[in-house]
Amino acid sequence: MNIELSVVMPCLNEAETLAICIKKAQSFFEREQIAGEVVIADNGSTDGSQEIALQLNARVIDVPKKGYGSALIGGINAAQGTYVMMGDADDSYDFSNMMPYIVKLREGYDLVMGNRFKGGIKKGAMPFIHKYLGNPVLSFIGRLFFKSKIGDFHCGLRGFSKEAFKKMELKTTGMEFASEMIVKSSLKNLKIAEVPTILSPDGRTRPPHLNTWQDGWRHLRFLVLYSPRWLFFIPGILLMLLGLISSGFLIYSPINIGDITFDVHTLLFTSGCVLIGFQFILFYGLTKVFTVENELLPKSNKYDKLFKYINLEKGLLIGLFLVLFGIALSGFAYSNWKELNFGDIHNSNTLRIVIPAITAMLLGVQVILFSLFFSILGLKK
Question: Most exposed: 107, 164, 203, 336, by fewest CB within 10 Å?
Fold first, then answer.
């Protein structure tokens, strides 16, 4: 018999609620006449969860490597179904009501997410800080960074095709596995749908495995690190624009705002903003090449064009021009100093030449070094 649906449940001492979850899934198979299996991805239970699962004819897969993501990856890899439904074994999700997911999967969607905020969160099912801060904020960041339309990034009940799971190439071992699945699906342009899902209170008497602040940070860290555009490029552009515009005014003349005068000392800081912002942009480029060439991020359509517009030869020429421009400005400043017979410089106009000169030379050296390293990272091209 070809199995259409595998229901995978991560398990770590779930003896209190495991049986009811397995029975709900099996009753769903029978009622909807679906060829299915229940796979328990056991992560080292010591309360007899394995025996309970075996008595109910569920498959038990031993996953020695600890972690929510590790358990699910082990269970999903062992699943034999065309489609996979994953969900916690704490009876907070109703495994007897999976048909909306199956309908979408049969329609050809690669990933079908549940949305607890649309389906309903029963009283006591979700802590206040998760409901009104953690989940909304992290889901908003996910939608912003990765152009995803998913409203609930952390719903534990979700379905996907086994083929799509292989394309995702998921790596994380902890709770951030939930975010990685959506991020990778979005980056790889997989077809994603969302269905309302009801969240019920945890049926266990012991505390949940979830650690609010630690796991929340792991989700946030993952979202940020997997989006170098928002981590490096956008802050870099903003810093450079701020520095260039401010420096342009200060090079021309001091700026007076009320009783406060901004002069060459401020120009030092604005020039620093230019250099720091440029460092951010360079790091974005290096990170982008490294992550794509090492298959940590999928290759975008614009990626190959990157090597047409940015290459070693152009970088060396631009860098050399900036260095020579800085040297020329330094020579001009030197001639002004010479006119003073190399005495004390009391006029700040000389510093208005010296500071841009040093900034230009530093930018030029950075461009040259970046071009060399960029070319090394892209040797596969």
Answer: 107
Are 253 and 118 in a shared domain? no
Q: Which of 197, 225, 253 is the last residue of a domain?
A: 225
d(CA 157, CA 121): 13
pTM above 0.85, yes or no: no
The answer to whether the CB of 179 falls within 8 A of the CB of 140 is: no
Burial readout 218-232 (b: 16 or more C-beta within 10 A, e: otherwise): bbbebbeebbbebbb
Q: Are residues 273 and 160 in the same domain?
A: no
- Continuous H helices in the chain: 18-32, 49-55, 68-78, 99-106, 116-119, 128-129, 135-146, 162-168, 177-187, 212-225, 228, 234-252, 264-293, 303-309, 312-339, 351-377
Name the nearest CA neighbour of 311 among 330, 289, 291: 289
Q: Would you state the structure tokens that stand for residue 326, as one six-digit string?
A: 């800085």
Q: What is the pLDDT of residues 40-51, one digit of tens each?
A: 999 999 999 999
Alpha carbon distance 94, 314 (integer Å): 59
Whether the pLDDT of residue 149 is over 70: the answer is yes
The letter for the amino acid at 164 is A
User: Which residue, among 107, 94, 104, 99, has the nearest Cα to 31 in the 3D structure?
Assistant: 99
Query: Which residues form the domain of 137?
Result: 5-225
